Amino acid sequence: MNLRGIVAVSGRPGLFKLVGQNKAGYVLEGLDAQKVKIVANISTTKLASLEDITVYGEDEDLKLVDVLANIAAAKGNVPDAKADGATLKTFFEEVAPGHDTEKVYTSDMKKIVTWFHLLKDLPLFTEQPAEATAADVAKPEEKTDKKPKAAAKPSNAKAPSKTAQPAKKANMTSKKGV
């Protein structure tokens, strides 16, 4: 399962695909039917990649990727996110054995089931996680002693005027004389 680039945004329902980044923030596209594109502010918005999310476990935390894979294997038994708490708890005992029943709330279970229903139609469950290949690993190690070429100056950039430099010097000398 490959969940790279799929994020949950704090304060917004649903899941988003990280499309890019600009000066204002992250460019996100909704995974729902509307495909809404938003720009989430870098400084105020918290993004959580689904690859990095874990579920509280009794001994050790369970990766969300593994829980979603178990839900996908359960095929026809997946309840609706609006199901009652008892149904979700018994379902989670099957798909996430060893989860901490005191720390994992029914609302968390509903959120994970909702996310599964958003992701089940996408080809994410058949894709393999992106792993570094030998060629990708070799590229960063191949460093040369060559200096990078100087960047070309944009054509709309103004050259510093010759009069500006002597004026600065004049100000500096006048300060010394005072």
Automatic annotation (TrEMBL):
Q: Where is the DUF6852 domain?
A: 53-119
> Where are stretches of biased composition, namely Low complexity?
151-164
Q: InterPro entries attached here?
A: BVU_3817-like_C_sf, BVU_3817_N_sf, DUF5606, DUF6852
Identify the Pfam families for this entry: DUF5606, DUF6852
Q: Where do the TM regions start and end?
A: none
Question: What Gene3D superfamilies does the record tag this protein with?
Answer: 1.10.10.1650, 2.30.30.730
Give the signal peptide range.
none
Location of region: Disordered = 131-178
Q: Where is the composition biased (Basic and acidic residues)?
A: 138-148
Which intervals hold domain DUF5606? 3-50
Q: Which domain of life is it from?
A: Bacteria
Q: What is this protein called?
A: Uncharacterized protein
Organism of provenance: Pedobacter duraquae
